Amino acid sequence: MLEIKNLNVHYGVIHAIKDISLTVNAGEIVTLIGANGAGKTTTLRTISGLKKATSGEILLEGKVITNLSAPEKVELGISQVPEGRRIFPAMSVFENLELGAFLRKDKAEIKKDMDHVFQLFPILYDRKKQLAGTLSGGEQQMLAMGRALMSRPRILLLDEPSMGLAPLLVREIFDIITDINSTGTTILLVEQNAHMALSIAHRAYVIENGQIVMSGTGEELAKSSEIQKAYLGGK
Fold first, then answer.
1. Those residues with Cβ within 8 angstroms of residue 112's Cβ, 6 or more apart along the chain or in another chain
2. Whole-angstrom Cα distance, residue 185 to residue 153?
3. What's the distance, CA 117 to chain centroid?
4. Which of 28, 40, 60 is nearest to 217 (CA)?
5. Which side of the chain, N or C, has fewer Cβ within a 10 Å radius?
């Protein structure tokens, strides 16, 4: 569904992404793991159109979409849940969710998707009139995910969904990610919690200093002694 070929991205003179290639097949959860500053977020931002590629190609179902704008990519079915949630704090939960469907005109289907989001995240239904800025960190993460789902994405880009959350909530968020995937949404997940990410991923890539250094199934990487040493607290 999504293919990245020889992608390079710069911030001024800093070469942040160096010639990376990866694929995400329809229906998969693919995770990108790596240390802080390895280039994970930059990769997602470039896919979603928030950052310009220096060279290389991004393809969605075989069509080159490298230089399309972020709104154009949302229309094609790519939606991102940004690092740090980035909800609209002075708007209600309901208004935040409505904004996720900003580009859509199919009112009846929007209502269906809103109901689906409330099924996935019952707490958001209870809080729908509350200002988003007054939610807890976990609730804000759920809202950011719900908002992205309101654009009815075919591929969902998740950037550090577990950041700053209590362990119990992390488990819940990852259970919801697998639920979203089971209904047919393809997922590219960036996550520092490598243990959790690999436990739900069909396939995984490891990025270091802007380069892909390893790839395999989630299970293969979880068992790798190198990965255990670098990311899973193993010896």
1. none
2. 7
3. 17
4. 28
5. C
- Return d(Cα 20, Cα 171) in angstroms, integer: 30
- Please, is 99 exposed, middle or buried when counting C-beta atoms within 10 Å of its C-beta (0-12, 13-18, 19+)? middle
Q: What is the sign, positive or negative, of the torsion defined by CA atoms of 76, 144, 132, 42?
A: negative
Report the 10 Å Cβ neighbour count for 232: 17
CB atoms within 10 A of CB 26: 12
In 27-69, where does DSSP find H-type helix? 40-47
Q: Is the dihedral of CA 100, 180, 121, 170 positive or negative?
A: negative
Say which residues have a Cβ less than 8 Å from residue 183's Cβ, sequence separation at least 6. none
- Rounded-to-integer distance, Cα 199 and Cα 37, Å: 23
* DSSP structure class, residue 1: -
pTM over 0.85: yes
Which residue is listed with tokens 């094609």? 76
Q: How many residues are recorded in the chain?
A: 235
